[in-house]
């Protein structure tokens, strides 16, 4: 007899991240464009703070994460006591599920949404409810139509990964207005720093003006601290209280805390990363479209490329071709988009190589 995990756990497909080492014969140079990491890498000041933390690794970190919470609060104009930090925002998204989902409760999210939501729901024996998204943009009415008295969590990535689409502040407000008070809206704004649209709101305003909205953010993307694992949430006070009860006492390590404070302070580096993206994202979209491929608009640091269904020209064929050139994109089968590859905006050299390689791929 084996000890059984709770219902739902064995329905989870383990999360598989963007590849690096899965190549049969590795080309000279690899360009990892599969996990939406920043081509600029972390701030030199963040690296120095991380290195300096090594001298302190013999002692426990500050379990209250006070300095980092205060730095985040200053940076964004928030109240520090409404911020909870986590071992990546993944941890916070998971803790919300652990704390709020009972067996058979429902967690709502879009069909082409971030995989972590489904995993978190199933791990808690809850029911993942996936809202169809035929135009690859979240349909607020379709989502509201699936709300039931059992709906406890509503996860919305804004902007969404992998589609690159976003909900305007007005649409997000309309979604929130249609939810019952018994459901918590979780706005996952991992890519907020990249968005430059004036009808976008990361979630701060919505959290500030309601009792049932949480916004999560991360240091993994524009701040390029993915390897250290640090994210945070801005929450109503009762949600802070709940998360503080269920999180690990020292869930953010000492190097992560120090590096995140330094990364926030280095505004010049963050601006440079945003400017790099603002230049190269439209460049990639334009040049890929010029090859006759569909490339969707995106407000993140990545874009979705759609491939034909003809043999030799499919997404998997393109993936093989690009891989042979050392260009690693993300396959999209697990996101329900088998005809697509997701491309992270890279450094100039990588971006030019991708367009050149796709041109050859389409012409062969
Ligand atoms: C990358 C990403 C995150 C960030 O996860 P971390 O655990 O903070 O590294 C969160 N949500 C979405 C949609 C993402 O793409």
Please describe what this structure looks like.
This protein is an alpha/beta fold and about 375 residues long. It folds into 2 domains: about 20-40 and about 270-364, Aspartate Aminotransferase, domain 1; about 45-265, Aspartate Aminotransferase, domain 2, CATH 3.40.640. About 35% of the residues lie in helices and about 15% in strands. The protein is built from 12 helices and 13 strands. It has helices at about 45-55, 65-75, 90-100, 115-125, 140-145, 170-180, 205-210, 235-245, 255-265, 265-290, 315-325, 350-364; strands at about 30, 85, 105-110, 125-130, 150-155, 185-190, 215-220, 230-235, 295, 300-305, 325-330, 330, 340-345. A 7-stranded mixed beta sheet has the order 2-8-7-6-5-3-4, with helices on both faces. A 4-stranded antiparallel beta sheet has the order 9-10-13-12. Helix 4 (about 115-125) links the parallel strand 3 (about 105-110) and strand 4 (about 125-130). The mean pLDDT is about 95. The structure holds pyridoxal-5'-phosphate (PLP). Pyridoxal-5'-phosphate binds near residues 88, 89 and 90. Pyridoxal-5'-phosphate (PLP) binds near residues 89 and 161.
In the predicted model, the low-confidence regions spanning at least 5 consecutive residues are none
Q: In oligomeric terms, what are we looking at?
A: single chain
Distance between the termini: 56 Å
Number of domains: 2
The amount of beta strand, in percent, is 5-15%
């Amino acid at each position: 007899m084996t000890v059984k995990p709770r219902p739902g756990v064995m329905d989870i497909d383990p999360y598989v991240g963007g590849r690096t080492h899965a190549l049969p014969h590795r080309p000279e140079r690899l360009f990892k464009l599969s996990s939406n990491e920043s081509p600029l890498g972390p701030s030199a000041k963040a690296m120095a703070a991380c290195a300096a933390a090594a001298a302190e690794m013999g002692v426990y970190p500050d379990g209250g994460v006070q300095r980092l919470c205060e730095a985040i609060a200053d940076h964004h104009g928030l109240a520090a006591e409404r911020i909870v930090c986590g071992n990546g925002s993944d941890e916070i998204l998971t803790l919300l599920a652990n704390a709020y989902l009972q067996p058979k409760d429902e967690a709502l999210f879009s069909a082409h949404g971030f995989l972590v939501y489904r995993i978190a729901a199933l791990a808690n024996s809850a029911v993942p409810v996936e809202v169809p998204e035929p135009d690859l943009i979240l349909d607020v009415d379709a989502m509201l139509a699936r709300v039931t008295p059992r709906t406890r969590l509503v996860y919305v990535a804004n902007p969404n990964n992998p589609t690159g689409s976003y909900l305007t502040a007005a649409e997000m407000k309309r979604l929130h207005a249609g939810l019952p008070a018994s459901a918590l809206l979780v706005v996952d704004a991992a890519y907020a720093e990249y968005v430059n649209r004036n009808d976008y709101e990361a979630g701060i305003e919505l959290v500030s003006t309601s009792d049932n909205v949480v916004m999560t953010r991360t240091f993994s993307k524009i701040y390029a601290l993915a390897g250290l694992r640090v994210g945070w949430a801005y929450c109503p006070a009762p949600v802070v209280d709940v998360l503080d009860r269920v999180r690990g006492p020292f869930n953010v390590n000492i190097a992560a805390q120090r590096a995140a404070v330094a990364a926030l302070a280095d505004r010049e580096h963050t601006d440079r990363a945003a400017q790099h993206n603002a230049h190269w994202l439209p460049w990639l979209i334009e040049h890929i479209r010029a090859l006759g491929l569909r490339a969707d608009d995106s407000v993140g640091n990545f874009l979705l490329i759609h491939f034909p269904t003809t043999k030799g020209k499919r997404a998997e064929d393109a993936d093989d071709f690009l891989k042979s050139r050392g260009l690693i994109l993300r396959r999209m089968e697990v996101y329900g988009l088998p005809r697509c590859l997701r491309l992270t905006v890279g450094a100039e050299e990588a971006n030019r190589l991708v367009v050149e390689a796709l041109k050859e791929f389409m012409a062969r």
